[in-house]
Amino acid sequence: MAKPKQKTKIKKSPTPNRLPSVPQTNPSSFILQQPPLQNLAYQPIGSSDHRYDALRDTPVNSTAHASGEYVPVQPPKLRKAVDLNDSTLPDLSSATRLRLMARDPHWIHAYWQVAPATIDEAQKSLGRHFDHSHYVLRMHDITSINFNGRNANKSFDIEIDPKIKNWYVDMWQDNVSYCAQIGLKTPHGEFYQLAESNCIHTPRASFSDRGDVIWMDVTPGVSKKPFIFVDPSGKGKRSSRIRWYLTEDDIKAYYSKLFPMLRKIFRSGRLTLRKSLHRFLGKYIEGDDDLLLGLHNNAWLRKTLLGASEELVEQGEGVLQTIGASETVTSLGGASERMSKQRKFFFELGTELIVYGRTEPDAQVLHGTKNVPLRPDGTFSMRFALPDDGFIPLDFKAISHDKIEIRKILTSAKRAKTNYQTEIV
Amino acid sequence: MLKGYVCLLLHTHLPFVRHPEEENFLEESWLYEAITETYIPLIQIFDQLIKDGVDFRVTMSLTPPLASMLQDPLLQNRYIRHLNKLIELSEKEIERTAYDKLYHGLALMYNRKFLEAKEIFLNHYQRNLVAAFKKFQDLGFVEIIASAATHGFLPNLQVNPASVNAQIKIGVDYYIKTFGCPPKGFWLPECAYYPGVDNVLKEAGIRYFIVDSHGILHADPRPKYSVYAPLFCPSGVAAFGRDWESSKQVWSAKEGYPGDADYREYYRDIGFELDYEYIKPYIHQLGFRTNTGIKYWRITGNTEYKEVYRPDWAREKAASHAGNFMFNREKQVEHLSAHMDRKPLILAPYDAELFGHWWYEGPLWIDFLMRKVAFDQKTIKFITPGEYLTKYPTNQMAMPSASTWGWKGHNEFWLEGSNDWVYPHLHAAAEQMTELAQKFAPQIEHKLKKKTLLQRALNQAVRELVLAESSDWPFIMKTNTMVPYAHKRVKQHLNRFGKLREDILHDTIDVDWLTEVEWRDNIFADMDCAEYYLLQKKPKKIKSVKTTKLKRKKKAYA
Lengths: 425, 558
What we know:
The complex is a heterodimer.
Chain A: E1 9-10, H1 27-32, H2 51-56, H3 62-67, E2 82-83, E3 97-104, E4 107-113, H4 116-126, E5 134-141, E6 154-159, E7 166-170, E8 177-185, E9 191-196, E10 200-201, E11 214-219, E12 223-230, E13 242-245, H5 248-256, H6 261-266, H7 275-280, H8 289-294, H9 298-305, E14 311-315, E15 319-323, H10 325-328, H11 332-338, E16 352-358, E17 364-367, E18 370-372, E19 379-385, E20 391-399, E21 406-414
Antiparallel strand pairs in A: 1-2, 3-4, 4-7, 5-6, 5-8, 8-9, 8-10, 11-12, 12-13, 14-15, 16-19, 17-18, 17-20, 20-21
Chain B: E1 4-12, H1 28-51, E2 58-62, H2 64-70, H3 73-96, H4 101-124, H5 129-138, E3 142-147, H6 154-157, H7 161-179, E4 185-187, H8 197-203, E5 208-211, H9 213-217, E6 231-232, E7 238-241, H10 244-251, H11 270-273, H12 276-279, H13 311-337, E8 345-351, H14 362-375, E9 380-382, H15 385-391, E10 394-397, H16 422-439, H17 441-445, H18 453-468, H19 472-479, H20 483-505, H21 511-520, H22 540-543, H23 548-557
Parallel strand pairs in B: 1-2, 1-8, 1-9, 2-3, 3-4, 4-5, 5-7, 6-10
Antiparallel strand pairs in B: 6-7
């Protein structure tokens, strides 16, 4: 599809508040003229002074505004051509960096850039080993630990081609924390680090294995109080339950076990679970699964485990089709093109009837009882859809300007019933 | 007896496609089509419901790019031009179809609808449709929630916390500026949640956000009430989960309502169907065929042959589908309420543009649904998430799972071979912007009546960066349509950002160039965007807390 070309040189119109007193006779000399700086005071768009906006964006006079008439925006004419060439991408090669992004529970995306200076340094440092070294991406599983560079749960290396700048890493486990290094591995197995990545946590792919029910009271803007119900009497009756309020530390501790990302969030140091709480969690508080699992049958669970937004639609004999929300519509233009017609072969025929004529420019022409607008030279034309088996009466009448003479032209058009045939050769 | 609640949420968003530099810009028509087919019909329906005394509730997000385009005088003016053209075409169509019984009524219908749209746009709301939605919110029928500055896909931006911070807080402050009150809820673009983003929402004063079903189901610990009640994140911000049953009934192209044979066919438009010479003035200026919005055919079935559209049949179907939706929600609520200690909430979020633009009868369906639920039964009621939280301030606490409402439920649609090249650039630019903001922090914080050139340049740099971050660009790249436009936009904004940065660092800001770019990318034009990259900037909320105890607590939560 053709696309409107992006202009690279733009000229803009001078506005009175910016170029007040330059008398101009020759527009071309004007274009090259630099405006005095003090006249370029910034008027924020949308501020109380609307002249900036009004003059350039909306050349609407008040009557046009009321009647809804469109007044075309004047092409901008600027004093100085402004280069807005946008076709290339910024060069990132001067910096060394490695970043990880979680794509889904089982894939991590890593991208990197290594600056020439970093490679030079490596070359100096590794000496003759440099030429025999290869690039690796070293992935560290840092789930539930404070990573210090050496204490990863496990690590693995992926050999990479230095020309390729990114990689999707296939993971065998969801809900894990990872960070990575990119570096050179010498033939002796030594690792020379070029860059270190950020830490990420991959999403969970299934239900949590914790079913504790912690409640929270939230009063907007004032407080939030997490609590659990405990049953000190051990009778298991609803009436004997009491609320046990939890502190921030309890919550931190609760999550720090499985969720090291939260450590950062809570900015905590060493965390321990309150002993008293430990006694209650998972022991005396409510269980939950009776409802969550009871609400839904097995088929539902299967769907959920596969990912809830993948609405698995069973059609016919178990044919699965996936539909995600974003697939349907998110962007108007994007989706419209994507789902466009997929006809292999088609053949269509439409008929329209064009009727045209001429008379004195000051005459009046009627089609039936309807007035037909005349062009200044007295010609006119009308266009009618002529449907299958259709009939169009063409009763035209012209009345002379002095109303003395009336001329009529009476005819009609008919389209015969269509005959459709298909031949397969 | 009232047994549960339903929340209809319309996510209303379009990318920022304002192009003042050209008279006719293809992508701007996304906005015009959505106005005619979705926003105005919704406004018409809400107004009529209010007039008829129907107590309805709808929750809507109105993203900053869309709200700012709807309030932009240039685009308002161009919309009028677009609409006038449509009216002209529909008049020609009335004449052309005068002897064609099948189509003549439809030509008249379109003509009437376009004239009504013009009346509403010009005379009821004086060109500013945001004012209409604000009115519905002020009257208590619609709850509008905030969204990120430019629909940035936050999980992929989290490498730079400053970017996430800026996306969320610019969005919230823009909301306050536009609607005159702080937002209760927040629409995470693409429902993309990751643990930790709720803390930024908390700082911005947000009380709830929406996640997809598995965001709740895979929460830690497991949710007691599945997606039928919100969870509080440890930060105290509530997460509401999408109900998949109601979603499927409307979303699914195959078995959902919009695919019914009696509904209008989207893919047959007279812009493509009619004689080229005739339709030429109404398609793109360069002569390639585009949709006009006038479509005469119904879906008919899984066939290339399409029957003519019958509005009365479609209307009947919309009514019966609304009844069916209501019936299913009643049954669902009855089943759920037997197992819960509170009234269940069924949250059904959709893209607003589905209603009207894609599914032509969608607004009518909403109209029927709201009326039926208000008058024909007593089991369910519409509610907004904000109201639900007021009714139930105590909820289970759990950490929702990272998730999106995209294909496969995670980030793949926005992070794969076709679009992963954007992220190194976005991340590098965000890093550079953070450095710039730190370097020029005193200048950014120095409040002056008139912005200095440096302040203007810094603010514009942030505007360019957030525009490049929009999730729409990688989305378009993945769908493999209009890709050159998405590429162009990302490159443009990154390059403009890069030039501004160079100029700022070398003290060579080109005032003409800056003015030109400000004129083109005028989103958040009157906001001091650079401030949002000062991470140490204290959120406005905290200042209002008086007691020292609370202050300490807040600090701990933050």
